Amino acid sequence: MRSIAEYQTAHIEGAVSRPLDSISTASWPKTADIVLYCSGKG
After folding, report:
1. Do the domain assignments include residue 22?
2. Residue 42 pLDDT
3. Which of 5, 15, 34, 41 could share a disulfide with 11, CB 3.0–4.6 Å?
4. How many Å apart are CA 35 and CA 21, to the nearest integer?
5. Does residue 24 lie in a domain region?
6. pTM for the complete prediction?
7. DSSP readout, the chain?
8. Total count of domains within the chain
């Protein structure tokens, strides 16, 4: 959702950066809170 450079500059504590094309919701825990965020551009 954000570039590596943006992630390295600043990110939410505990955040994990993953390429968008590698994200599969099938593997997400059914009871976990998942938060996605982006740069707000585009």
Report:
1. no
2. 60
3. 15
4. 17
5. no
6. 0.57
7. ---HHHHHH---TT-----GGG--GGGS-TTS-------S--
8. 1
Q: How far apart are alpha carbons 39 and 4 in whole angstroms?
A: 11
Output Rg (C-alpha) for the chain, integer angstroms: 11
Q: 20-33, pLDDT tens digit by residue?
A: 777 888 888 889 88
pLDDT average, residue stretch 8-31: 85
Chain-wide mean pLDDT for the chain? 83
- Residue 16 has what pLDDT? 86
Neighbours of 24 (CB within 10 A): 8
Q: Residue 35: name the closest of 5, 15, 11 by CA.
A: 15
Rounded CA separation 20/31 (Å): 22
Residue type, 10: A
